[in-house]
Amino acid sequence: MSERQGGNISMHGSAASHEALIRDQFSRQAELFARSPELHGDAQIRLLVEAARPRPGDAALDVACGPGTVVAAFAARVRLAAGLDATEAMLEQARALARERGLSNVEWQAGDVYRLPFADAAFDIVSCRFAIHHFQDPAAAVAEMARVCRPGGRIVLCDGVASSDPAKAAAFNAMERHRDPSTAEFRTLRFLAGLFTGAGLPPPEVVPFQVAYERERMIAQSFPVDDDRGRLRQMIDGLIAGDAMDVGSVAGGITFIYPAAVLAATRP
Q: Is domain 13-161+181-211+259-266 classified as CATH 3.30.870.10?
């Protein structure tokens, strides 16, 4: 699961290689991903927007904004909505969405999640949706989000959640890294909550939810290692058999369900 978002990574060592994976994945995914109802449906987006408690005079920033759906949702509720992403193909999708909806209070910025190109306390709301699992150093990214958020503003994260069982989490992450090589790691809910306190923020409010994919649709839209979709199917079936994820049957095949959560806190 990726909201292509793909945040930029510092250009040294393995980080540079990971950045290249992100750019490759989300340049290829951009058009299909922008139309994904599993991640970009109104009900899914609304969970994050409501957690941010937007006000008409606010300025909002969505970090690793992908195709701009979160920014567009905020634009209807705030004075200014900005989006930052590392991948130009995703920003092109975001600009197209803004034109389609006639939005005039949005801004788009290419940039690095670890060095946000904004002044301290520049925004009332800073969000990041389905991107943390692509970050090799999520604590550094959240610290930057806190830096550009004003005191009294809201920090909101949303991402998939790994099992607290280490073996199940490892199996899930192995599948995801095969499905999308730009994945760093899906983390536990405890880890995600700890990103807030580690950045000097209060413990977050948590709203759990689920993201459901029809298995074959997800496989068809993925760009796995060596383009090996057969191996991806086997890995998903292994997760199902091992009860590593919640699954159910629907017409046409297996529904693969990602546990996810929105976490939000007010900056002191």
A: no
